[in-house]
Amino acid sequence: MLRFLAHTLEQLDLALEHVLKGDANSARFAVMLTDNALELVLHQLAKDERRERSASWKRDKVYKDASALEAALGRHFDAKLRFAKPRLPISDEEAGTISICHDLRNDVYHIGLQHEAVLPAIAALYFDCAVGVLARYKPNFLSYSPDMMLPERSRKYFGQQPYGFRAREDFQEGCRALAAQADFDAGPFVDALADHLAQLVEEQDGVIDIIATGGPHQMSRDQAVIETEAWHIMFDPKAAREAKKRLNGKAALPGKSIAEIQSWLVANGALRYSRDPVPGWRKREASLRREKNPHKALKKYRDFILQTADIRELLLEACGQVEQWIDGQIEQMRLENK
pLDDT tens across 264-321, in order? Predict the structure, then answer.
């Protein structure tokens, strides 16, 4: 167990090194290292509990959370987090941040470098949150050998010889020392998230303008958004199924013209967006920028990213089609003027 604690501190020490570099690629490694160290400790906590319950005088006892323990010993991160939550303990806000950052870790690990604009800020929050949680971990047993060699990076956190006498306390103090070195500041973190959200909103603002005014048919910004989503529903089976759920059993679409179908979709609540979303998105950006709690700020940011992902992608695609039409018109004029 001492070696396990030492390897955890070694990994966290390396994660801190990458956090402090402040660039996106280093932040990617920091997130993966932090997440792995945290997951291993959550799994070890579940193993500790299983060992405790397997004692001869406890084997006949019935535990209400037996299934939760078995799940925590499996491969799913969320089950480990749920089991550890009341035991370390982990607050609701911390658990929410950990879940979000674990999902982000999966993105950067399986897909590649993503979220470049905010990854350094999120890596810093995740590290601060993780070491704060891990500082509460206290294993219920400690194996130790006098000739045990600890990893070089971790030795500075185990100040007394022999190592095993204060290993639990040294581990907890090591986590607190790492947090102090990271010196996480919520202000720049919130600013980074709000700046990126504002950038996304401004991009979409320009995209909607192009759709509304750049194509062969001029329309309002509201109508540009309605047509973009309505066309997607009419020609994408998956989108149509989702829209049908929002109709709550209403009859099939009446009418034959595209305009009639669009009007019916709007009137019956099948569209998620029936007007220009940019003003509402700007209010969400302002709310995020005012947020002082970094955990709440991360949730607001993540909610915006997930809730608007589909419509932002559709609008970008529609904008690309308009730009292709514009390029075609320019090429046609060039050929006519030769």
Answer: 777 777 788 989 999 999 999 999 999 999 999 999 999 999 999 999 999 999 999 9
Judging by beta carbons within 10 Å of its beta carbon (0-12, 13-18, 19+), is residue 217 exposed, middle or buried?
exposed
Side chain identity at residue 318, one-letter code: A
Distance between CA atoms of 253 and 73, rounded to whole angstroms?
Answer: 50
Largest CA distance in the chain: 95
- Residue 6 neighbours by CB under 8 Å, 6+ apart: 150, 151, 154, 155, 157, 158
Q: Between the CA of residue 188 and those of 241, 316, 327, what are the distances in Å? A: 42, 29, 41
Residue carrying the six token digits 């950006």: 285
Contact 328, 215 (CB under 8 A): no
Listing DSSP states for 227-238 in one string gives: HHHHHHHHH-HH
> What is the C-alpha separation between 227 and 274, in angstroms, rounded?
9
What pLDDT does residue 182 have? 98
Report the distance separating Cα 42 and Cα 48, nearest Å: 10
CB 2 within 8 A of CB 168: no
Q: Which amino acid is at 118?
A: V
**pLDDT in the model for residue 162:** 55
Which amino acid type is present at position 329?
Answer: Q
Below-50 pLDDT ranges, the chain: none
Does the N-terminal peptide bond of residue 89 adopt cis geometry, omega within 30 degrees of 0?
yes
> What is the distance in angstroms between the CA of the first residue and the CA of the last residue of the chain?
80
Q: Is the peptide bond before 254 cis (omega within 30 degrees of 0)?
A: no
* Alpha carbon distance 121, 298 (integer Å): 10
Domain boundaries, the chain: 2-182, 190-336
- Is residue 100 within 8 A of residue 302, CB to CB? The reply is yes
